[in-house]
Amino acid sequence: MDSLYQYAWLIPVLPLAGAMLLGLGLIAYNKTVSNLRKLSSTFIVSLTGAGMFYSFAILWSQIQGHPTYTRFFEWASAGDFHLSMGYTIDHLTALMLVIVTTVAFLVMIYTDGYMAHDPGYVRFYAYLSLFSSSMLGLVISPNLVQIYVFWELVGMCSYLLIGYWYDRKAAADACQKAFVTNRVGDFGLLLGILALYWATKSFEFDVIGDRLTELVETGALSGALAALFAVLVFLGPVAKSAQFPLHVWLPDAMEGPTPISALIHAATMVAAGVFLIARMFPVFEEIPTAMDVIAWTGAFTAFMGATIAITQNDIKKGLAYSTMSQLGYMVMGMGVGAFTAGLFHLMTHAYFKAMLFLGSGSVIHGMEEVVGHDPTLAQDMRLMGGLRKYMPITAITFLIGTLAISGIPPFAGFWSKDEILAATFAAKPAMWLVGWLTAGITAFYMFRMYFSTFEGSFRGKNEEIKRQLRAEQLQRMGLAFGPGAMNPRELTTEPPTDDHSAAPDHHHSDTPHESPLTMTFPLMMLALPSVLIGLVGTPFANYFEAFIHPPGEVVEVPTLGIPADFDWAEFLTMGGSSVGIALIGITLASLMYLSRKIDPSAIAQKIQPLYQLSLNKWYIDDIYDVVFVQGSRRLAKQVLEVDIRIVDGLVNLAGFVTLVTGEGLKYLENGRAQFYALIVFGAVLGLVLISGIT
Amino acid sequence: MNIADFPWLTTIILLPIVASLAIPFLPDKDGRTVRWFALVVGLVDFAITVYAFYTQYDLASPDLQLVESYTWVNSLDLKWSVGVDGISMPLVLLTSFITTLAILAAWPVTLKPKLFYFLMLAMYGGQIAVFAVQDMLLFFLVWELELIPVYLLLAIWGGKKRQYAATKFILYTAGGSLFILVAALAMAFYGDTVTFDMRSLMAKEYALNFQLLVYGAFLIAYAVKLPIFPLHTWLPDAHGEATAPVHMLLAGILLKMGGYALIRMNMEMLPDAHVRFAPILVILGVVNIIYAALTSFAQRNLKRKIAYSSISHMGFVLIGIGSFTDLGLSGAVLQMVSHGLIGASLFFLVGATYDRTHTLILEEMGGVGKKMPKIFAMFTACSLASLALPGMSGFIAELMVFVGFATSDAYDPTFKTIIIILAAVGVILTPIYLLAMLREIFFGPENKELVEHEILVDAEPREVFIIASLLVPIIGIGFYPKMMTQVYDSKTQQVTAVVRQSFAAAASQSDDSMAIAPQRAPALVDG
Question: pLDDT, tens digit, for every residue of B105-142?
């Protein structure tokens, strides 16, 4: 079986080769390659498909009990420092490989339908393939440096893909924001890696863990310092997995095409943070302070994301905040030591959230036929409604996803979220309360989304709402630029035409239509795991835990049937309470958005400050704008002023003085050579004298 | 004749210079023949360089190789002696590679083509000579000589303020090189024997105070060249006015002379002074990184922005040089090579963009990505390389400097922590100014004013070829850095051993009068 592992490096290399081939083709023979649309996409999809089958083979082999396989080659060296790269395949890697390849494969199929009219179709596939390669490289990394390498590379792919429609101003801003925010996290990660290397002389996860524990025990390293190192490393996941306070990039990242939102900004890349925590678990679990920081960051992010998601009207933004919130659950789980539960939720979330995003893309695709290629209109839920009649497959799959994320049994999300909540309750009841409340809010906002999109009557032809939305958009743009920077010409009522398609607008339809099969097929395929995959990790027969558990722990493989010592009372209270609050949320949502018995705007009026807080995303973007964006600009300007006026001036002045004396000397001594000689002579004499005296 | 005895380095240096002398006699009216001539000479010289190093250079040895020495002026003890080792060999290779590409980049030059290519070829030989000569006096001469073509290239083919920039350039660098002469003479006449030979100078034992003075003199000269804050202000002016090919030479090669000379003279010849000065170099390195990154962010002129980014990147070279570790020094050399490639590519692209937009002011650009997708793609790739994206050469160089400095046992942990945190701030600042620059040039809706007045055509094959040639080694080193590091590893180890020995000696002398505050004895560290 070892030959299977010897060639495992092919999994990331295949998509890389595909991306490079397309990239070179696009640079060298732009016109020809751009027209080879179907050929390019088939090529890339089959490469990913091959990777997917390979990953399944590896997963199967790991389930059969194949030992961990690691391979290294020396990558860089200097003196007695050697840095190796390579790949390691264990249970966690095998699981991640399967998650990434399956979602990527389905998203790539979906892309064919979604991007059919886009002129950059081939470029998009090249980026997608490059991303898959980087992400797969990340999950097979055997040490921290390689993780950091691919960590940055997935960030770059995310940058390229968010800025894919680069002529849109919002996309241009968003991609830069994403990259820079992630770099802030990477700053911490880099410092953490350096500090851990300084302390332990290793980049490998388990070695770091062992040596660090030893150092703390012998007192060679203070516990506070160890905790600081761990928290620095954790800053990486904070940015990548959109945790407070570095979450601000994720909602803006929705400016990228929807397949990207599904693959990168919901299912895989953002989960890389949780993956890194899992890899670093041997280090973190020994440091209680770090675990507390992780857990509370996760809990707070889960709550904050959910509260913001309530008031979002853009369907993708709503889902983005819900992703943030769900990632918060995973991080919280990791923080309370629920390693298995966190990764279980990562897996279930990857499938149902990818499906929800692809579903939202299908909705947007349908809406564009009615309102045109304007994201302000096509993504706003206030213009939707009643879409179930027109897009039944999308509606059913979206409903499945909504039930899964709301934690209704037997859908996947119930099992994983419940496991996290149970573990949290055992560790920190106060934190459980936060998670439990968030579960209710989650159910509420997800059903709000479902009801206002798919139920009721279609509002896409309502000109009144359209006008209102455009006005709101102009107002937002004005705010973003600051009043001073506003160009008066931009204030015309004509909306900026952000066509992402060069094809003539074909939105003459009055009603949206179901998307083509290439788009609905992935939805249906993703619905299967969204319903079923939770069953591998039920508390009474937890096959998932037998496969994925913290290194060093022994977990017995469950036998068939429910074990005799299973604590039904605990399971029923825990599960019952979270299902209960979810049902309350759903009922509330149906009263407000389905039967319209309660008027949401009346409630919003009553709790105006809270409503505004949620609508303005807790004002965090505004605060960052003033403090960091404006602040750094002002600082940079001042430094430049100093450079031009003071530094340059002073050095020039010094030079000027010498020059004047030089000019003077030139007249006196009649020639530059003598001047040189004199200086030289004097200097040599001086040097010799000084060194002679001492 | 035996191939090993062939005077390879002399040939490599003299071939372009001799060829340049033939240019005035070329029958050429429209400037086409001369550029082909220059390109062929460049390629031939590059081929000879590659062949000579491939067949004659032994990677495992840290010693000088391909050595030649002929007495030139007997009374002055002036010898034509050349040779390369691990530090100069990659830079010689880089020089002939970048200069050849710069000649190709100069294809559209129509003003006085004969003079232009004459100067380019003269530069070619002069630059290689700086890295290859092994005689102090000769070093000073070629260091000065290579300034003249740059001065003329700036003063004749530059932008609007070219006279000011060229004069400032020559005053700064010539002023700096005066210090080289003084220091070189002082070293030559020190002790019993009078010699200019670098290896003999290395072997001399100098008194500490003498070393410190000479070190300071060298440092001023090389600080102008590298450049190091606060002697950097000639660079934005010179870069802001230079044309793209000159730009490529300035950023790709000339800046590296400063780093090269710091290692060759300050570290190898004056290790005891280096022990005292290293903390200062490290601090200046951090200042370079942050200060230049901030000024770059505030700059609205594209060329000046990239010029400041060069200064920022050179900060890592300083930290590596001051680290007292194999890894740090190796990273410093790699950063020089890497920045040579990346800097040259970015400046070339800035020139290519300017050729189309005819403006360097960012406000006057915007949304040009739609009309020039290839330039957009290449610019993005090179900017990502510059912001040290993994998979490209800049990342591994910076990482080696970081790890090298972090594991250095020569510094107090607090000092190390502060330096590393500040240097890592550069990791955040670099993408801010580079990505903001990309956004302002290429992203967003098209700038109507610009599109109406300028014809924005996409990159031509020649331009794609130049960038591709530069990206291949950038990505190659990024994917497999060992390919590059093994070229000079034995040499950097030797240099580090020399300075570490001095460091150990200094640390054991606890009654030392010179302050080595942030440093401490090596035995105390190691966790």
Answer: 888 887 888 888 888 888 899 899 999 998 888 888 88
Q: Provide the shortest C-alpha distance from residue B66 to chain A (in Å).
A: 24
Task: Reply yes or no: is the peptide bond before residue A488 cis, omega within 30 of 0.
Answer: no
Report how far residue A113's alpha carbon sits from residue A394's, in angstroms, rounded to the nearest whole number.
14
CA distance A167 to chain B (A): 4
Number of Cβ within a 10 Å radius of residue A268: 28
DSSP tag of A556: P
CA A610 – CA B3 distance, rounded (Å):
84
**CA A554/CA A599 separation, integer angstroms:** 54
Reply yes or no on whether the pLDDT at A636 is more than 90: no
The verdict on A523 touching B (C-beta cutoff 8 Å) is: no
Residue of B73, B82, B74 lying closest to B8 (CA atoms): B82
Q: Which residue, chain included where needed, has tokens 């506003």?
A: A486
Whether A200 and chain B come into contact, CB under 8 Å, resolves to: yes
Tens digits of residue pLDDT in B19-63: 888 888 887 767 678 888 889 999 999 999 999 888 888 888 888
> Is residue B520 over pLDDT 60?
no
Cα–Cα distance, B291 to A113 (Å, whole number): 49
CA–CA gap between residue A238 and residue A270 (Å, rounded): 10
The span from the CA of A17 to the CA of B95, in Å, is 31
% of residues, chain A, pLDDT over 90: 22
Structure tokens at B48: 């000879």
- Asked whether B50 and B89 are in contact (CB, 8 A), the reply is no
- CB of A334 closer than 8 Å to CB of A277: yes
Burial class (CB in 10 A: 0-12, 13-18, 19+), A456: middle
Which among A132, A232, A136, A138 has a CA at the least distance from the CA of A185? A232
> pLDDT of B238-279, one tens digit each?
888 888 888 888 888 988 999 999 998 888 889 888 988 999
- Read off the pTM: 0.88
As a dihedral over the C-alpha atoms of residue B193, residue B195, residue B199, residue B203, rounded to 10 degrees, the angle is 20
Is residue B365 within 8 A of residue B447, CB to CB? The reply is yes
Range A536-546 average pLDDT: 80
- Are B228 and B220 in contact by the 8 Å Cβ rule? The answer is no
Establish if A611 touches chain B: CB-CB under 8 angstroms: no
**pLDDT for B419 beyond 60:** yes
ipTM attached to this prediction: 0.88
CA-to-CA distance for B290 and B259, rounded, in angstroms?
19
Q: How far does CA B178 lie from the centroid of its chain?
A: 20
pLDDT band at B320 (very low <50, low <70, confident <90, very high): very high
Q: Chain A 26-45, CB below 8 Å of chain B: which residues? A: 26-28, 30
Contacts of A458 (CB under 8 A, 6+ apart): A384, A385, A386, A387, A389, A390, A511, A512
Evaluate whether A390 touches A514 at the Cβ level (below 8 Å). Answer: yes
Q: Which of A531, A558, A523, A342 has the alpha carbon at shortest distance from A435?
A: A342
List of chain A residues whose C-beta atoms are within 8 Å of the C-beta of residue B170: none
pLDDT of residue A642: 82
Q: Give the type of residue at B270.
A: L
Residue B65 β-bridge partners: B84
Three-state secondary-structure class, residue A97: helix
Q: Which of A672-686, B110-124, B511-525 has the highest mean pLDDT?
A: B110-124
Contact B257/B225 with Cβ under 8 angstroms?
yes
- Cβ contact A77–B482 (<8 Å): yes
Residue with tokens 């809270």: A610
A140 to chain B, closest Cα gap in Å? 16
Q: Please give the backbone phi and psi of residue A103, each rounded to the nearest 5 degrees, phi first.
A: -65, -40
Determine whether A53 is exposed, middle or buried from the number of CB atoms within 10 Å of its CB (0-12, 13-18, 19+).
exposed
